[in-house]
Design a protein that fits this description.
single chain, alpha/beta, Lyase, Ornithine Decarboxylase, Chain A, domain 1, TIM Barrel, 2 domains, nine-stranded mixed β-sheet, eight-stranded parallel β-barrel, binds pyridoxal-5'-phosphate, DAP_deCOOHase_LysA, EC 4.1.1.20, Diaminopimelate decarboxylase
Length: 422
């Protein structure tokens, strides 16, 4: 029997107030929740010091970044644009590490400003060497193992293009020697929603790689910590996963004499359950006997593409528009508002509807999609069907709501288009 999901950080009264004050759909984030998650990450077990980098791809909203900055969290940037965005919002360049699939076009300027470069391929390492002979550099390795919550979020092993293949250590050394580079940091990241056991095994493989680089003094083990969105999903416990790894760092120190500093790069962990989307029920339609009852929301893949991309499950909580919910339940397929068969919020891997039991949903009721703090606003198919970018609201510890992103208007959607005479 499916469990009926509950609100994670909002009350029903808050949901109604937010919907009335800001309209729907709207993202809502909990400042208190984000700060608590930062505290948990900052207490990750470590032997010789820790730096936590926020994988800002998860949610690069200015206020979110500013909350992280006040907590002393550093930045994992995935593109030159993310690095520049973090600098724009007040991070020092030295607090940012760039780990990018594409070689940054302004690499020289970024590195000269102080941004740390993590070479993700032999070509990237060589390009860095040509620009900065004799300098220190970090290298990302593909450790040969990967794990993600789906195949699509697994970025390690033979099927993944991320990082230098672990058997190419000698080639890395040759390039480093040719340009006098010092490899001061080794980095691995094996996927999002990784199995904690695989994550731990990769820590050992990463230490073995670090042991081959005498100048290495930092080991960055990436992010990927699994976070349960649904009641039946588990969240990685940092103490359980981190203690044995801290022990491995101590063993490394006694064997090789280097006290490695640990870095981790959580994205999901810091944000997933600290964000939700408040939507309204726009329509309820049925496909008759043997069919389904569909609840259509006024939100969809233009603000959260995860269900269509990964068949990801998000808790859906019905909040009555009128007041107390009747407590009655019903089985629905939830769909988004985009004119797209794939805009199914409750869908099977590979497509197709999956019914979900939730509270009874009536026209105009609100539906809160939980677990929407990471990889939703940032990874949406924004402006598909010309729906405007969704507004974002922060709930403070005092329960005060602050608008932190305005809803986009039509003018902003048109702004970069240039009319030509035809
Ligand atoms: C290099 C790197 N570090 C950290 C992360 C964060 O992963 P997660 O949000 O699963 O913690 C990612 C995500 O793709 C990544 O590519």
């Amino acid at each position: 029997m499916q469990s009926i999901e509950k609100l994670k950080f909002l009350t029903e009264t808050q949901v109604r107030s937010i919907a009335k004050q800001f309209g729907t759909p709207v993202f809502v984030y909990s400042r208190e929740g984000i700060e608590k998650s930062c505290d948990t990450a900052l207490s990750f077990p470590n032997a010789f010091g820790l730096t936590v980098r926020y994988a800002m791809k998860a949610n690069p909203n200015r206020t979110v970044l500013e909350i992280m900055k006040r907590k002393g969290i550093h930045i994992d940037a995935s593109s030159e644009y993310e690095a520049q965005r973090a600098i724009h919002y007040g991070f020092k360049p030295e607090q940012i590490m760039l780990t990018s699939q594409e070689l940054a076009k302004d690499l020289k300027e970024l590195v000269e400003s102080g941004v740390v470069f993590n070479a993700c391929s032999l070509r990237q390492l060589e390009s860095f060497g040509k620009l900065f002979p004799g300098k220190e550099v970090s290298v990302r390795f593909n450790p040969g193992l990967g794990s993600g919550h789906t195949k699509k979020t697994d970025v390690g092993g033979k099927t993944s293009s991320f990082g230098v293949w672990h058997e190419d250590i000698e080639k890395v050394k040759e390039i480093a020697d040719a340009y006098g580079l010092k490899i001061f940091k080794i980095h691995t990241h094996i996927g999002s929603g990784s199995d904690p056991e695989v994550w731990r095994a990769v820590a050992q493989v990463s230490l073995d790689i670090a042991a081959r680089f005498p100048d290495c003094r930092i080991l960055d083990l990436g992010g990927g910590f699994k976070v349960g969105r649904m009641e039946d999903e588990k969240t990685t416990d940092f103490q359980t996963i981190g203690k044995p790894v801290a022990e491995l760092f101590r063993e490394f120190a006694s064997k090789y004499g280097t006290q490695l500093h640990l870095e981790i790069e959580p994205g999901s962990f810091l944000m997933v359950n600290n964000g939700a989307v408040v939507s309204a029920v726009d329509d309820v339609v049925s496909t008759g006997n043997g069919g389904y009852t569909f609840v259509k929301l006024d939100s969809g893949m233009d603000l959260n593409t995860r269900p269509s991309l990964y068949a990801a499950r998000h808790p859906l909580v019905v909040v009555s528009a009128e007041g107390e919910h009747s407590g009655k339940t019903a089985e629905y397929v939830y769909v988004g508002h985009c004119c797209e068969s794939g805009d199914l919020i409750t869908q099977a891997e590979g497509g197709g509807p999956v019914p979900r039991i939730t509270g009874e949903a009536k026209l105009g009721d609100y539906v809160v999609m939980e677990g929407a703090g990471a990889y939703c606003s940032s990874m949406s198919t924004k402006n598909y069907n010309s729906f405007p970018e969704t507004a974002e609201v922060l709930v403070g510890a005092d329960g005060v709501f602050q608008l932190i992103r305005k809803r986009q208007n039509l003018e902003q959607i048109f702004q970069n288009e240039i009319p030509v005479s035809l």
